[in-house]
Structure formats: C-alpha cells, structure tokens
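Subject: design request, 260 residues
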C-alpha cells in the first residue's frame, strides 16, 4: 500500500484530475461537442419524486448520508454518492455494509441516508432478476470486503490521474483498469463492498454493466453510467434515471459521532 507521504503528494494532482470527458458524436448541423462528467446528484427536471412503488427488482439505488464515513468516501471519489444497493422487491434492498451482506427495508434506508435515487437497466428481464435474487440468497450473511475497501482509498486517489480532461475514453478505461490491477491485484473475491456487490449481481445475472473488475469501481462509477453522463470506465449500457426517493438540497455539516 502506498505510504502516507505518497498519498499526500498525489492529492493535489487528484483534485486537478478526476474530470472525465468525451466528445459527443457530431451531427450534420453541429461539430463534436465536449461532454464533461456530471458531478450532480440532484433530481432531474420534469421527473417527480418517487415512492417505493415506482421501483422494480434489479434497480440500482445510489445514496449519500451526512456522516463522516459518507463524507470521506465522497471526497476520495470526487462524487456526490457514497453507497450503492440493489432493489430486490417487496420494498427491500440488498446491500454490502460493514456487518456483511444483508437485506433491509427501503424505509430503513431512507431513514439513514440523506439523498437517495434509483437507476434502471433497460434490458432487465425476469430471468436476470431471478439470477440476481439467487445471488443475493447465496451471499446474505457473508462477510464484508474490508480489505477491498481499505485498498480503495489509495486507488481512488491514483486513478484520478487516468481521468485528465481530454483523455480519450479507451485510454482512460485502460488506465483505470491497469492502475486497479497494480493497486488491487487480479483475481476474484468472495467478499464484497457495496458497489462491488451490485456490479457482481449484474455480472452473475449475465448482464454485466462493464467489463472492468467490480473490485475497481465505486458508487461514483455507477452514478456516471447514467444516461447523458461520461463514465470513467467503458459502460456496456447506460442506466436510466428513475427518480429520487429522497433529496436533501443542503445537507448539514457531518456529525462527528455519526457513522454512515
């Protein structure tokens, strides 16, 4: 793992990087337009807030909280989200948290998180959902990927250098995956952290969201796979925005006693 001095030296460069871009396809009327990764997590105009009844099994739920842990994740990943979970139906999500893989109610999630939104893969079919539920059933109660999360901290800083503005998308994708292989190693894991769990559920269902190793990606990467955004790694399918289940426009300062 990189030394503390190395991390501190890389931090200023990380702040200058971390802004993935791409050129939109030109049209007969317009020249290629530069798109910049969207840092926002606010409700989309014209889409009302939604309730749990609007969710479908397989929806990806991204969220942020007011605690120090959430704030730290958002700072490291230069992102407005810090947690990812998978909606499995019956008003429940499956998620990887410190105590392990668990199910809990959407109501409990909304009580803990300050901002929550759902995203949907348009190609989901019943057979995919069945495989996701089987994966959740196999993994509930298993231990959390603590080592993977610890290694994410230095990796989150160093990978920002792959996302320099104007870096071509194939080069950015290759760079992130290469740095991940060096920092986190190659191979599979039978333990998961939150975004890794969601990505693995899709992979096990036969509907991978990306070819990148799930261990390399964070909730921020899932957010930037949404339609109209610029993903850091190559996305196989843009995710549709379903709506916000909860939105806090101006969160209070992090509570030092809170745990996200």
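Subject: RE: design request

Done. Sequence follows.
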């Amino acid at each position: 793992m990189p030394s503390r001095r190395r991390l501190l030296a890389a931090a200023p460069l990380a702040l200058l990087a971390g802004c993935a871009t791409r050129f939109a396809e030109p049209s007969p009327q317009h020249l290629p337009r530069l798109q910049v990764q969207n840092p926002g997590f606010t409700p989309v105009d014209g889409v009302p807030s939604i309730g749990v009844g609007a969710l479908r099994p397989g929806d990806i739920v991204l969220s942020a909280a007011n605690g120090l842990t959430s704030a730290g994740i958002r700072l490291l990943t230069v992102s407005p989200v810090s947690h990812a979970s998978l909606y499995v139906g019956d008003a429940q999500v499956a998620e990887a948290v410190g105590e392990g893989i668990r199910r809990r109610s959407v109501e409990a999630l909304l009580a803990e998180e300050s901002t929550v939104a759902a995203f949907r893969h348009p190609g989901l079919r019943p057979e995919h959902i069945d495989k996701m539920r089987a994966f959740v059933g196999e993994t509930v109660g298993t231990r959390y990927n603590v080592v993977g999360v610890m290694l994410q901290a230095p990796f989150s800083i160093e990978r920002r250098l792959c996302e320099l503005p104007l870096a071509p998308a194939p080069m950015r994708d290759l760079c992130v995956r290469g740095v991940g292989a060096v920092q986190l190693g190659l191979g599979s894991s039978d333990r998961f952290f939150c975004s890794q769990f969601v990505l693995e559920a899709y992979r096990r269902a036969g509907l991978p969201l990306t070819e990148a190793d799930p261990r390399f990606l964070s909730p921020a990467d899932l957010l930037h796979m949404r339609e109209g955004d610029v993903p850091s790694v190559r996305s196989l399918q843009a995710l549709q925005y379903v709506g916000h289940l909860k939105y806090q426009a101006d969160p209070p300062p992090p509570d030092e006693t809170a745990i996200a």
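The radius of gyration is 18 Å.
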